[in-house]
Amino acid sequence: MSGPPKPKSIAVVGSCFIDEACFVPHMPQQGETLLCNSYKKGFGGKGGNQCVMVGKLGGDVRMVAMVGEDANGSAYVTNFADHKVDTRFVLRSQLPTGLAQIWVDEAIGDNRIVVYEGAAGQLNVDAANNLLKDGCLDGVDIVVCQNEIPLDTTLHFLRVAHEGGKITMFNVAPARGSLPDACLGYVSVLVVNESEASQISGVEVSCVQSATSAATALQRRGARTVVVTLGAQGCVLLEEGVAEPEVLACPKVEKVVDTSGAGDCWVGCFAYYLSVGKSMKECCRRAGEIASVSVREKGTQASYPAASDLHPDLLS
């Protein structure tokens, strides 16, 4: 008697940063100096966050990235190994490992983030081609990218993965201006939040209706399935081949502590559930449930639940 199908293998291509978070009573005004109430250092970067979330759920995942030849870089590689992430394709650079400075408003859990790319910015197309020659996408079924490494590199990986028949996910975070239509044709699943959807679609997103309009515009430009995440409002899913968009709510959270990394938690969960054969709708629903858990704790990866922390229904 055969068992369940083997999960698809995932490669996450992207950034690895060290997060330094200050928890403040309010966001500082221009010229204002604030004393923070607490400080937390941890592992971050959108690529690293998404990859670790897949690992925490037990997915078959590898990281394709560049970190520094420094203590932070070594610690990050160890962190990946602790979460059963394949690190064969994590390169080292003479530049320092990237850094994210995060301010979190303790009153509402909102944040402001400034990033120094460091080593992640050195992952250029030449480095990508060397990684591809070394087999970084060999045997991979799903490739997940974000927008914190050079865009040319990201688009190169998306094109190669698409031409190789792989499922591609592009989380355009952060948005850095418009995207060429040609690159959207390489994307199986495009994931954007309100501000990112507004920037790349030209439709100002402020509600479910405008999110649907933005998703429709992006699908017309070439993306096959589009998801616009709306924070506490859930998300809008416009799936390839399905005429009507789906609006999926997420659980209400009484006390939001820290939203840092919640979007990455969502993307990592979506990728994992896609890898085990769940429908697009179910991927969105489960990702929303788990991301709503992450905002109840401080930190990014440190706030992500492991499979053992979740209700069995989320693992079936």
UniProtKB/TrEMBL annotation:
Amino-acid positions noted as binding K(+) in the UniProt annotation, renumbered to this chain: D258, S260, S294, E297, G299, S303
Stated EC number for the protein is 2.7.1.15
Q: How is the cofactor bound?
A: Requires a divalent cation, most likely magnesium in vivo, as an electrophilic catalyst to aid phosphoryl group transfer. It is the chelate of the metal and the nucleotide that is the actual substrate.
Q: Which SUPFAM superfamilies match?
A: Ribokinase-like (SSF53613)
> Is Zinc a UniProt keyword of this protein?
no
Q: Which GO terms describe its molecular function?
A: ATP binding; metal ion binding; ribokinase activity
Pathways per UniProt = Carbohydrate metabolism; D-ribose degradation; D-ribose 5-phosphate from beta-D-ribopyranose: step 2/2
- Provide the binding site for substrate: F17, I18, D19, G45, K46, G47, G48, N49, E148, D264
Q: Which GO terms describe its cellular component?
A: cytoplasm; nucleus
Positions annotated to bind ATP: N193, T229, L230, G231, A232, Q233, G234, G263, D264
Q: Which N-terminal stretch is annotated as signal sequence?
A: none
User: Keywords, A to Z?
Assistant: ATP-binding, Carbohydrate metabolism, Cytoplasm, Kinase, Magnesium, Metal-binding, Nucleotide-binding, Nucleus, Potassium, Transferase
Q: Could you confirm whether the keyword Repeat appears in this record?
A: no
Its main subcellular localisation, reduced to a broad class, is cytoplasm
**Pfam families from the xrefs?**
PfkB (PF00294)
Per UniProt, the enzyme's principal EC class comes to transferase
| A Gene Ontology BP annotation from the UniProt entry | D-ribose catabolic process
Q: Start and end of every Carbohydrate kinase PfkB domain?
A: 8-306
> According to its UniProt record, which reaction does this protein catalyse?
D-ribose + ATP = D-ribose 5-phosphate + ADP + H(+)
State the active site: D264
The regulatory note on its activity is: Activated by a monovalent cation that binds near, but not in, the active site. The most likely occupant of the site in vivo is potassium. Ion binding induces a conformational change that may alter substrate affinity.
**Needed cofactors:** Mg(2+)
What role does this protein play? Catalyzes the phosphorylation of ribose at O-5 in a reaction requiring ATP and magnesium. The resulting D-ribose-5-phosphate can then be used either for sythesis of nucleotides, histidine, and tryptophan, or as a component of the pentose phosphate pathway.
Q: Which family does it belong to?
A: Belongs to the carbohydrate kinase PfkB family. Ribokinase subfamily.
Tell me what this protein is called.
Ribokinase
Q: What organism is the protein native to? A: Eutreptiella gymnastica
